[in-house]
Amino acid sequence: MRAVVARPPTAGAELVDAPNPGLAPGRVRVRVLEVGVCGTDRDIVAGEYGEPPAGSPALILGHENLGQVAEVGPGTSGLAVGDLVVATVRRGCGRCRFCLANRSDFCETGEYSERGIRRADGYLADEYVEAPEYLVPVVPALRSVAVLLEPLSIVEKAVRMGLAVLDRKEPTPGFPRTGAPSALVAGTGAVGMLAALVLRIRGFDVVAIDRHDADVSGELLGVIGARHANVRDGVGALGGARVDLVIEATGSVPLDFDLVDVLGPNGVLVLTGIPDADAPPTTVPGGALFRGLVLHNQAVVGSVNANRTYFEAGVRDLRAFEERWPGLTARLISSRRPMERWAELLVERPAGTIKNVLTVGPDGSSAEGAR
Fold it and tell me: 268 forms bridges with which residues in the sheet?
């Protein structure tokens, strides 16, 4: 089969002919249709991250995925040939309480693997084999947007973590909320835009920020009733506005510190972007920072990966998006290009795009710019 592989920590990738995986009892063979590309994939190709499976020099790339069941092994139930599925990413250590409870996103040992990222092959190949508990069914009506489910699962978890912290101050019996809750989303890539959609569905007033003038992301934000703001010169451009919840999706350390200043009393900042560990040190007024966090009951929370429950929540929200804003979610996919053109998306992110997708199976749309 065809597969795009990297050899971390060596930079680079290539399209190769790889062995087809064998189908064992209790497993499912999935024909890959589409694979989304994100910054993690580019970091692996740049040699900055990633780890091949044990005993192998190469790692099949790709963790954002959509496929179709091609074959069901003996002893397998719940899935049938032809079903559309999205596979989760992380596989637990098998030892800690969270992984044993299928909550590997909270793994305590750090000995997990992640398909397409760390110690396990990914999905940028013609097919893969997986256990059904890691395959989330998707209805045909969501075929055009289902490849967004993995990044949406990251958002679902981040928002739930933020709401859990916000709920520490609720309820106030006899005193209803005086206004809609407010949120800021930092970054207007796929994770940021999906966060804006999730928060709007949940009734938040939303502003999304980046460091350029409004483009297609600004247009889409306007459709959902959110606001775009250019903070090229800093968060002071927000005019001192304060919000209940911030979802960060940039990985910019200086911005992360600035975002604390955007929090209102009792507010929560949830970090999902992963900064460069080798970036130059950042100087901040630590005393003022932590003093403010304490005096205003504020919290900063990190959120990584997502277990199956968040993928399932994402399926529900994809349907909710389509019901409320028909056709809008599909516009988050800026381009679809055939697998053979992997380098165009895995080496650099094309300017002005939100989510770029590589098509693999014959059912995928290979037209550049397809939406």
Answer: 245, 299
Residues contacting 20, CB < 8 A, separation 6+: 1, 126, 127
Question: Is the pTM above the cut of 0.70?
Answer: yes
Taking each helix axis as running N to C, give the angle between helix 149-166 and helix 308-324, from 0 to 180 degrees, rounded to the nearest 10.
100
Judge whether 338 and 176 are in contact, CB under 8 Å.
no
Burial of 203 (0-12, 13-18, 19+ CB in 10 A): exposed
Q: Indicate whether 180 pLDDT > 80.
A: yes
Residue 368 has pLDDT above 80, yes or no: no
Distance between CA atoms of 201 and 187, rounded to whole angstroms?
Answer: 19
Q: Among 324, 365, 370, which residue's Cα sits nearest to residue 66?
A: 365
Domains of the chain: 2-138+332-359 (3.90.180.10), 154-302 (3.40.50.720)
